[in-house]
Design brief:
Layout lengths: L1 H11 L17 E4 L2 E4 L17 E3 L18 H10 L3 E5 L2 E4 L2 E3 L6 E5 L5 E4 L9 E4 L6 E5 L2 E3 L6 E4 L2 E10 L4 E6 L2 E10 L11 E6 L3 E5 L2 E3 L4 E6 L4 E5 L2 E3 L11 E6 L3 E5 L2 E3 L4 E6 L4 E5 L2 E3 L11 E6 L3 E5 L2 E3 L4 E6 L4 E5 L2 E3 L11 E6 L3 E5 L2 E3 L4 E6 L4 E5 L2 E3 L11 E6 L3 E5 L2 E3 L4 E6 L4 E5 L2 E3 L11 E6 L3 E5 L2 E3 L6 E3 L4 E5 L2 E3 L4 E5 L3 E5 L2 E3 L11 E6 L6 E5 L2 E2 L5 E6 L3 E5 L2 E3 L4 E3 L2 E3 L2 E6 L10 E5 L2 E3 L4 E6 L4 E3 L2 E3 L3 E6 L34 E2 L26
């Protein structure tokens, strides 16, 4: 009896199958439907979650015969179903699971029709049998129909997936996949996409196009929660005045170039179109992530991610954002990261970009090792960056070039710029060729080789309440420069700090001009400020804590040399020193106006059993007395705290008036009055040195003044840091 019961139990539960009253096990996001598991969005039963009613037109590819469109006798053709609904004045067309091989056309006669599949995973309209037709084409005329599409996949169109013109169309929870030429085309129409995917559009028979979405002719497209991925030539393009695109929480991903290797941009807005994108991700595209071009073209980005744009097959491009030819862009709260060549580029007269609380970081070099720039502005474009972070880029953090170009940085950080693979640059800010840049409340820190560079006539940089800190030694030059101007460029800084440079804090060459007002130069290397053959003007500044360079030596507050042409140095109302060698070191003829400063000497440098220098002022090699326009003027200064000599003039002279000395072993010494040979007449160079001895009026107030003694207290000292550094001028084509 027991055996019979066991046999009966086995018969009720066949091996490998659950009991009839147990649910079929399904994966996460799936539900059971008869004997299968389907995506939850598809619902169970033939019509799933569709809200059918008595007026619904039903379509089922598996129906026996072609019925009348009722639930009991569904039609088998989508075209027949939408036509029937249109004849009835609109309503729902419910499509059961299956693949419908046909191209569907709708127009003014389909106003009010909603074409709804059970779900996009189970319902496909396949347009591969058509002849250069979209899968679904909606074209209105005088009457602009309102049509809905919901829960289906449009695949295989021979000329697009969805084509909309002169109509209002809403598409929800649908996919557009693997169509030729274009995924979605919108022209003179209004289209709303919600949770729509546009994937893998293919080029036409000539290898051209393959775009995801094309919007033109004054059309309006709104896309929320959509994904545009794996298309060619461009993910989304908007063209023409009046054309408007709004993207919310959308993704534009992995757009590839055309067959000829061009294009591949994620989003391209051009010729007067507008884009508003909020909370979107544009990633892994080619050539340019977001591109805007043309007068009256406007782009507004809010909380978007522009990431990982790849270079074109020819090794160029890969920019995160590119704006040109008079277009305008505003980006707020965005992140532009991991792109190639340039993070954000603005170029051409009339082009404007405004960046607010936006981060541009980790831009990669091109395959040839060049570029990797964070923000680049040129050819007359204008850019502002407010509370932005520009960090970890290569070659240049912020680059401005050419006349008419203007960049305004406010409360912005430019940090950690690295050198290119070949060891060139690594500059925080570079301004060249007549461009202008202002920076207020900014930090320029931990860059390589140069913190702030200005090059070329007409180039101006204004720094206010800005910190230029910790510029690192470059491989090309072997040192760092905090702020440098050359070739008639001008830098003006006020209420600014320049600190901890692995080289001079300020460096002026080849006719450059640097003006500092209430600037603190602290902890720099070799010298706080260097003027070779340019102009250096310090007013109410302080220079302290300069460190010697490990190779070039030094330890100066201000160092000026005529080795490459006479410098022009003006020091007023400033506090400089103590420094190892001198608060102010002047080498050779020039214009040196030193008035109203406190200049501190030091304990000097131990060398050869003696103490070397530590002066408040040291002048050598023919610095002349002030003649009213040139030479050296020392007036109304306090020279203090030199353990040896406060003011030491070697083969040099000065005009001196109303100075004070305090705490120096020797206040003033002038030596080698007849030249470095210590004899009157020609020297080894064939020139006659004729240094005017100081007068009693010059030495007034100087304790222990020594004027033209026979002895020379100097120990021979070769200064290594006189190599003229000229960064290569950057140009753009």
């Amino acid at each position: 009896m027991l055996f019979a019961i066991l046999l009966a139990a086995c018969a009720d539960h066949p091996a490998g199958k659950p009991p009839a009253d147990e649910a079929t096990p399904c994966g996460e996001g799936e539900i059971p439907d008869d004997s299968a598991c389907v995506p939850e969005a598809c619902g169970a039963g033939t019509w799933g979650n569709l809200s059918v009613d008595d007026d619904t037109v039903y379509i089922d590819i598996d129906a026996v015969g072609d019925g009348d469109g009722s639930e009991a006798a569904p039609l088998t053709s989508v075209q027949a179903g939408v036509d029937l609904a249109g004849d009835r004045g609109g309503g729902l067309v419910a499509v059961a699971a299956g693949t419908y091989v046909e191209a569907v056309a709708m127009g003014g006669g389909h106003d009010g029709v909603t074409l709804a599949g059970r779900c996009r995973d189970l319902v496909t309209i396949d347009g591969s049998a058509g002849d250069k037709l979209p899968v679904i084409q909606i074209v209105g005329a005088r009457k602009r129909p309102a049509i809905g599409i919901d829960g289906l996949t449009m695949r295989g169109g021979t000329y697009g997936g969805l084509w909309v013109q002169q109509a209002t169309v809403s598409v929800r929870a649908s996919d557009v996949r693997e169509n030729a030429t274009l995924g979605i085309v919108v022209g003179d129409a209004e289209v709303i996409l919600d949770d729509v995917g546009v994937y893998d559009s293919q080029p036409d028979q000539h290898g051209d196009w393959g775009r995801g979405i094309d919007v033109e002719g004054g059309a309006a497209l709104t896309a929320t929660g959509c994904t545009i991925r794996g298309n060619r030539d461009a993910g989304l393009v908007a063209t023409g005045a009046g054309t408007e695109v709004t993207l919310v929480d959308a993704q534009v991903l992995d757009t590839a170039p055309s067959a000829d290797g061009t294009g591949g941009s994620g989003v391209a807005i051009q010729d007067g179109a507008t884009l508003s994108a909020t909370g979107c991700t544009v990633q892994g595209n080619s050539d340019i992530g977001v591109f805007a071009t043309g007068a009256r073209t406007t782009v507004e980005l809010v909380d978007d991610l522009i990431l990982d744009t790849l270079p074109s097959p020819d090794g160029t491009g890969g920019r995160g954002i590119g704006v040109e030819s008079g277009a305008g862009l505003t980006a707020t709260g965005c992140t532009v990261q991991g792109n190639t060549e340039v993070g954000v580029l603005a170029r051409d007269e009339g082009t404007t970009i405004d960046l607010v609380e936006t981060t541009i970081r980790d831009t990669l070099a091109l395959p040839d090792g060049t570029a990797g720039i964070g923000l680049q502005v040129g050819f007359g474009a204008m850019a502002t960056a407010d509370r932005c972070t520009i960090q970890g880029n290569r070659m240049v953090g912020v680059s401005a070039w050419s006349g008419g170009t203007a960049v305004d940085l406010v409360d912005t950080e430019v940090l950690d710029t690295a050198q290119s693979v070949d060891g060139m640059y690594g500059e925080g800010i570079s301004v060249q060729g007549g461009a202008t840049l202002t920076a207020s409340g900014c930090t320029v820190g931990e860059n390589t080789e140069i913190g702030v560079l200005a090059v070329g006539a007409g180039t101006t940089v204004d720094l206010t309440h800005t910190q230029v800190r910790a510029t690192q030694r470059g491989r090309e030059t072997g040192f760092g420069l905090g702020v440098t101007a050359q070739l008639e460029a001008r830098i003006r800084a006020d209420h600014t700090g320049i600190s901890d440079t692995e080289g001079p804090g300020v460096y002026v060459v080849q006719g450059g001009r640097v003006e500092l007002v209430q600037v603190e130069l602290t902890g720099n290397t070799f010298a706080g400020a260097v003027a070779l053959d340019g102009s250096l003007d310090l007013d109410a500044c302080s220079i302290t804590g300069t460190r010697p360079d490990k190779e070039s030596g030094g330890g100066f507050g201000v160092y000026g040399t005529a080795a490459f042409g006479p410098p022009d140095i003006t020091l007023t109302g400033s506090t400089i020193g103590p420094h190892d060698y001198a608060a102010v070191w002047l080498d050779g003829p020039g214009t040196y106006d030193v008035e109203g400063n406190q200049l501190s000497g030091s304990d000097g440098v131990a060398q050869g059993g003696s103490t070397l220098h530590g002066n408040a002022v040291f002048a050598e090699n023919g610095v002349a007395a002030w003649d009213g326009t040139t030479g050296l003027l020392l007036s109304d200064n306090l020279f203090t705290s030199a353990s040896a000599i406060g003011v030491l003039l070697d083969d040099s002279s000065a005009g001196m008036d109303r100075n004070e000395w305090s705490g120096n072993a020797v206040g003033l010494r002038q030596q080698a009055c007849n030249g470095p040979d210590h004899v009157a007449g020609p020297n080894d160079d064939g020139l006659v040195d004729d240094v005017a001895p100081l007068t009693e009026a010059d030495t007034l107030g100087a304790p222990s003044a020594q004027v033209c003694p026979a002895s020379n207290v100097l120990i021979a000292y070769d200064l290594a840091f006189t190599t003229l550094f000229l960064p290569e001028i950057e140009t753009e084509e």
